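Exercise 3.2. Students should predict the tertiary structure of the chain below and write it as structure tokens, then compare their answer with the key that follows.

Predict this chain's 3D structure.
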Amino acid sequence: MAKTAPKSFNTKLFPTWCPGCGNFGVWAALKNALSEQELTPDKVMLVYDIGCSGNMADFLSPYGIHALHGRAIPTAVGVHLAHHKFPVLAVGGDGGIYGEGAEHLIKAVRANFDITVLVHNNGLYSLTTGQSSPTTEKGKKTKTTPLGVIDLSFEPLKTAIMHQVGYVARGYALDIPQLTNLIIEGMKHPGFALIDVLEPCLTFDEEKTPLWFKERIYQLRDMKGLKADEALEKLDEGPKKLVTGVLYRSRRPAYHTHLPQLKEKTLLDQSIDKIDIGDIVKSFR
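Answer key:
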């Protein structure tokens, strides 16, 4: 099968993100990753959260669902369990995935559902003009924290690694070739894949410019991943040093492989005509 050109995943609408926004890089890398895997718009499902990242729903042509804020992951899990042979990605920001949707992320990490979650992480709620988010570093001044953030920032990658999730990686929005490869590897991994994407927000964060990231980011070249304790040590280097690449892989079986009813057919391929739930209903009387 010939590769589908990345531009084939475009819609008639050009992105309306601010000039210099990291979302452009994620948009390009995602299209490249789908193209490299010879997927077509009808062979992949994207579930979008709310926010600047969620606006990507207007700019990509594959099957898509624009979920509620923080609910991209459970929606993606539902699609996956109904058709577990179909590639499913959830796309959201650090606010939706790590804030409103944190409980869904933790459940998905524990269960190891075979979906790929792509998080645009700029450390702010940028669509609503730059309020602090769960990944805003302690002490940073924002519109909602004029004296500085008091809370410790949430550590989603550490959470995933400590729960032995399938695949954990971090990319940088302006390094499109590396991010493309991280997305491909995440989609191919048989289990939950969490890809955290560092990105600048030039409109609401004057500190974290592309130069700021360039001075701190370095890559892991080996795509095999590190041991859990090694990966955690690398993450502890931030914010002075920011590692990108595949941090961790687990051989833990994906959730759906434990379900005998999904071994031969997807739920969509199974008829419900002969299913009798009468006895189950009676048990609740």
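Discussion points: The longest strand covers residues 242-249. Strands lie at 45-48, 63-66, 88-93, 116-121, 124-125, 131-132, 167-172, 193-198, 217-219, 242-249.
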